[in-house]
Amino acid sequence: MQDPAPAVADDKIRCDACPVMCFIKPHALGACDRYGNEGGVLVRVDPHVVLDHWLSDGGAVVPFNAGALDWDGSILREPATFITAIGAGTTYPDYKPAPFIVASEVEGVDMVTVVTEGIFSYCGVKVKIDTDRHLGPERALVRADGEPVGHVTTGEYGSQMLSLGGVHHLTGGTKREGRATCDALLALCNGAAVELTVDEGATVLVQAGKPPLVNGQVEERMRVGCGSATIGMFAKQWFGKVDEVVVVDDHITGVLSEHQAGKLLGIADSGIKMKGRRSTPGRYFQVADPGTGWGGTNIADPLQILGSFDPRKARPGLTMLMVSTTGEHASYYVLDEALRPVEQTMPDDLARSVALIQENCEPALSTVLFMGGAGGSLRAGVTENPVRLTRSVKDALTVVTCGGAPTYVWPGGGITFMVDVSKVPANGFGYVPTPALVAPVEFTLRLSDYEKLGGHMDHVRPLSEFRGPAAHRTRVPHRAENPWPLMPDAARGPHR
Ligand code: SF4
User: Fold this and answer.
1) Residue 97 preceded by cis peptide, ω within 30
2) Minimal CA–CA distance to 72: which of 353, 476, 466, 374?
3) Secondary structure class of 378 (helix, strand, coil)
4) How wide is the angle at C-alpha 24 spanned by C-alphas 21 and 25, nearest 5°?
5) pLDDT at 468 > cutoff 80
6) How many Cα atoms sit within 13 Å of 489 on the Cβ side?
7) pLDDT of 65
8) By alpha-carbon position, which residue is closest to atom 5 of ligand 1?
9) Could you give the maximum distance between any two Cα atoms of the chain, in Å?
10) CA nearest to 440, candidates 127, 119, 80, 51
């Protein structure tokens, strides 16, 4: 993209794409590395990314000049090309029309896509780390490069959630905190690994779509469920092979003989005594403190969570399996004459059931969702009446995408959206040193609706205009798992 920019002394030009307003020398880049001075012309240096539906459907790649859009003038290709905001640039301040407002015809319907690289000083990421291990207390600060960049929020269903970024870390702390936050968010959003440390907790290496490393140890499996759920899943496998099973879990530890599944199978009381707080039969909370040991507890020896066996019910020779919810830890015991569990070699059939738990675990991953609010002045680049854009998104007339990837738009005020960064084309995110993240945002709607909401109709350009030589434009396949954003009813898709 090229933009005329006012020349200043010494052949420098001034970039007006963000509040920093850099003076850029010839052949140099601005502070964000996104804009440069090429022969006195302000240029957005990264290629402008367009998605090609046809390539993702397995169409043959054009053998020459495949990066440009001038290889085929056929009108039939029109719906197969989607102009993303990646590399499109910004139009700060936002009252200027967005950099590209592109009309195309899809299945006989005139559509328009408004693209802009939004500057988000208030954005954040939500990180889901599939692990049983205790990463740190809820509300503990999460640091990157020693600076606070977020906090531990909740533990959910075998995953630990972190909330990083947001207005307070980006703009409300020291300059260094803002920079560290921006750097961490940018790296995570662009798929790089970031080391995070939790106050009074663990060090985690997080990378979108990759297994987390907790204190240097690769997390391989996400647990099958809590201890009670594990008993529900595998009780039948254990029936007749062992007298008692304890599934050790920091959240809910399960005891087979007391659990409803064990009762229904007719498993006899074993006289087992558990420490911790009994919730319902066979389900115990707080058997130990959280940690990085067995089942996300702080224990290395599972017998620590047991009291002595009741001699009226227990008997010498009674067998017991103790296992964690990932199957990563498992031990087999037999009660001796004094009713003390003594560890023995695990019988093969029980070892197979432990392997089955492991097999049923899903791979542990880190997942990164970018969360931004497109409800601010950015809307003025789309329409002269910004609230109508918000209403149009809420009414599902306008679909919001991020680099062509589907977003989840939160209910309530504004246009607060989340996107799975692994669905966005590579290096789709940037930054400006205000500090703020730069994220692609596209609004796609019917041209008639765009006119009704006060859109910048005099800036609408047909997609056919993009067929000329495009040295700074690159074509990438549309990801098959993403809905095609240009379908007229895409806004009414499953992501509402
Ligand atoms: S930081 Fe980047 S976008 Fe902002 S003025 Fe400088 S070159 Fe332009």
Assistant:
1) no
2) 466
3) helix
4) 160
5) no
6) 3
7) 41
8) 21
9) 95
10) 119
**Ligand 1 midpoint to CA 24 (Å):** 9
Contact assessment for residue 184 and residue 101, using Cβ atoms and an 8 Å cutoff: no
Parallel/antiparallel/unpaired status of strands 399-402 and 319-324: unpaired
- For the cut 60, the answer to whether the pLDDT of residue 2 exceeds it is no
Cα–Cα nearest to 33, from 402, 428, 430: 430
Question: Which residues, in sequence order, are CB contacts of 184 under 8 Å at separation 6+?
Answer: 144, 145, 149, 164, 165, 194, 196
**Ligand 1 centroid from CA 379, angstroms:** 20
Q: What is the pLDDT of residues 162-208, one digit of tens each?
A: 999 999 999 999 999 999 999 999 999 999 999 999 999 999 999 99
Q: Is 31 in the pocket of ligand 1 (CB under 6 A)?
A: yes
Please state the pTM of the whole predicted model: 0.89
Whether 22 is in the pocket of ligand 1, judged by its Cβ within 6 Å, is: yes
pLDDT in tens, 328-375: 999 999 999 999 999 999 999 999 999 999 999 999 999 999 999 998
Non-local CB neighbours of 445 within 8 Å, separated by 6+ positions: 111, 112, 392, 397, 398, 399, 491
pLDDT at 4 over 80: no
Q: Which two tokens stand for residue 354?
A: 């432990």
- Distance (Å, rounded) from C-alpha 129 to C-alpha 363? 11
Residue 34 in contact with ligand 1 by CB distance below 6 A: yes
Local structure of 114: helix, strand or coil: strand
Atom nearest to 36 CA in ligand 1: 7
Helix, strand or coil, per DSSP, at residue 276: coil
Is 432 near ligand 1, meaning CB less than 6 Å away? yes
Whole-angstrom distance, CA of residue 130 vs CA of residue 212: 8
